[in-house]
């Protein structure tokens, strides 16, 4: 926490930046790290603001989209793979989708962060969650049909939007929305711009 201090009642306190001795009556700013003279603190704050502003400038949206898609595909495949390996659909594992999409964007853009990237991250993560849901539910439907002695093959790639949504909505539970909300939250949070405190 930063607080301006007008009287530094100290004998030998120095500014952490310029090492100037802080005398009584000199305007200072105390932080968790120590004391800065007001001029140094203002300059450092301005530099930090410039660095933080640069995080949202000159964004390569093609690379951001590539990072989001790679993260979304990777996350959906991990979720599907865990489902195939365990024969149980762990919705909690789906959270990796939101993390992978957000991290993919930040990594492929060189650390860029912006609200526009947050929106992209949420859209791609929600779509990847739907694809992951399709793949996991398709797996369970096929297992059920095979146990019933029915040799039906559901296409890996859906043949129509109605077919896709029919599989995704099969066996829908309220927890599906909870996991989707967590996925979206992670996707929104990771590429969020860093802000100065206070």
Description:
It is a single chain. The protein has six helices and three strands, in the order E-E-E-H-H-H-H-H-H. The protein is mainly alpha-helical and 198 residues long. It has two domains: 52 residues; 129 residues, no CATH class. It has a three-stranded antiparallel beta sheet. Strand 2 and strand 3 form a beta hairpin.
The radius of gyration is: 26 Å
- Taking all residues together, what is the mean pLDDT? 87
Q: Going across the biggest sheet, name each strand in turn.
A: 1-2-3
Estimated helix fraction:
55-70%
Overall tally of structural domains: 2
Through-space gap between termini: 8 Å
Q: DSSP helix count?
A: 6
Poorly predicted ranges: 1-10
The succession of helices and strands, N to C, reads: EEEHHHHHH
| Overall geometry | elongated
Structural class: mainly alpha
Please outline the major beta sheet.
Answer: 3 strands, antiparallel
**Fraction of residues in β-strands:** under 5%
What is the count of β-strands?
Answer: 3
Brief rundown of the structure:
This protein has a three-stranded antiparallel sheet. It has 198 residues and is mainly α.
Entry keywords:
single chain, 198 residues, mainly alpha, 2 domains, three-stranded antiparallel sheet, 6 helices, 3 strands, 5% strand
Q: How are the elements arranged and paired?
A:
Layout: E1 3-5, E2 28-30, E3 35-37, H1 38-54, H2 61-86, H3 95-108, H4 115-147, H5 161-169, H6 174-189
Antiparallel strand pairs: 1-2, 2-3
Helix pairs in contact: 2-3, 2-4, 3-4, 3-6, 4-5, 4-6
